[in-house]
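Worked problem 6 (solution included).
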Amino acid sequence: MPVYENIALPYSIAPGESATPIVSTDNVQGALPFKSERVALLRGLNTVAQHLSAELQFSGTPGAYTWQIETADTDVDANYSIEGTVTTSTPRIELANIAANFARIRVVTLTNAVNVTGKLSA
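Solution. The predicted structure is:
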């Protein structure tokens, strides 16, 4: 059974659905590197790899920033690994062939104090 960092169950998304694991009230800049809530990726009965995209939105000009998508088969912090490009400063990441059970967004650097919203879509 996965070890959860809190008692709340994770969001879950199936292909065609989205979740917002970073909301504007999260203190992203004050907790760098910031790790979002985890999202369970539902694939149905098959284990076919799926598409996963992530997007960040900012309340103002973010300045220099870097972020990444991390995935894991078991929801334990140490099991998450970086998918795709190590870090990027573009507001959207697209990944193909994801076979993990969980995903999260990790904001590594953020220069300006702005509110951040992050979305994962399957």
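Discussion: The first strand starts at residue 11 and ends at 13.
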